[in-house]
Design a protein that fits this description.
Blueprint: H1 2-23, H2 53-77, E1 105-108, E2 112-115, E3 124-128, E4 134-135, E5 138-139, E6 145-149, E7 157-161, E8 165-168, E9 189-199, E10 202-211, E11 219-226, E12 231-238, E13 240-241, E14 250-251, E15 259-266, E16 272-282, E17 286-297
Antiparallel strand pairs: 1-4, 1-8, 2-3, 2-7, 5-6, 6-7, 9-10, 10-15, 11-12, 11-16, 13-14, 16-17
Helix pairs in contact: 1-2
Length: 299
């Protein structure tokens, strides 16, 4: 840039000198004739030849035009002085990988019942067996039961106890289900008859009962009072007889809607007896209990 300014100044100086030269007085006398210079040194000198004004004017114009073209070329080649902006580098976006949380899965080390609610008071509707896995859909408020698809009934759901369960995956985002309390099935039964069989010369009797409630019976207690003799006896047991014979097949439970024989005692035909029977929902006379009483004249 400094070089250009120096060249520009030099050119302007040359142009100015040329213009001034064009305006200098020519070597003519007042009468228009040529003016002779005196010889130098008093000796014989050379005589100058006068240049016509028109020739001077033409030469000055040619020089000015040439210098103008040269100045224009310099101006065109000179930088404008406007800085060229540097390209702006755009940052490359960073790809962030979000890990997909693993689906919670459950397995058990012991075959575990699957129920309609989180507790053993709910009905059993399936089971998660050892070696099976299921997706965990929800949990109870206490983290003791897991809500899964029913392994035995596709399309339905049920609850498994976490005592023998192993859950893998992220359970922090699982919804917490609090099922509304379900009506407790009524426990009940009906005495429908009296069984009588003679085995080894003795007369044996047993009550026929039907489970008319919604719970399963597992044990019983029978109190027999012989109103003829005032004798009394109490009998207990687990399981029920599918048929009343001298040798009967005993089943462990009496489910809802089923009929079986319960209790057996020896007595004398023709006596009048009162029988009080209590059934229990658990073995060894435990759990929920219902009692019913009937009187018979023994056949």
């Amino acid at each position: 840039m400094r070089w250009f300014r120096a060249q520009k100044g030099w050119l302007l100086t040359v142009v100015l000198v040329a213009v001034l030269a064009c305006n200098l007085p020519q070597g003519n006398s007042p009468t228009g004739g040529p003016v002779a210079s005196p010889p130098s040194g008093g000796g014989a000198g050379l005589q100058e030849t006068a240049v016509p004004p028109a020739a001077l004017t033409m030469a000055a114009g040619t020089a000015i035009a040439a210098m103008t073209q040269t100045a224009a070329a310099f101006l065109a080649a000179a930088p404008t002085g406007t800085p060229t902006p540097s390209p702006t580098l755009s940052p490359t976006p960073t790809l962030t990988l979000t890990p997909t949380p693993s689906t919670p899965m459950i397995s058990v080390s012991v075959n575990t019942n699957c129920r309609t609610g989180p507790g053993d008071t709910y009905d059993r509707v399936g089971a998660l067996l050892v070696g099976e896995t299921a997706e965990v859909l929800a949990r109870d408020p206490y983290g003791q039961f897991w809500y899964i698809p029913n392994p035995d009934r596709p399309g339905s759901k049920c609850w498994v106890w976490g005592q023998y369960a192993t859950v893998t995956g992220d359970t922090s985002s699982l919804p917490v289900f609090t099922p509304p309390p379900t009506p407790t099935p009524a426990a009940n039964f009906a005495i429908t008859g009296l069984g009588h069989v003679v085995c080894g010369g003795a007369h044996w009797y047993a009550l026929q009962v039907k489970n008319t409630g919604g719970l399963t019976w597992e044990s019983w207690k029978e109190e027999v009072v012989d109103l003829t003799t005032s004798a009394a006896a109490t009998y207990t047991g687990d399981g029920f007889a599918a048929a009343f014979r001298c040798v009967s097949l005993v089943v462990p439970t009496l489910p809802a809607g089923q009929t079986a024989y319960v209790g057996n005692f020896a007595s004398t035909p023709g006596h009048h007896v009162r029988i009080t029977l209590t059934l229990y929902t658990d073995t060894h006379q435990r759990g929920q209990a219902v009692t019913s009483t009937a009187e018979y004249n023994l056949p």
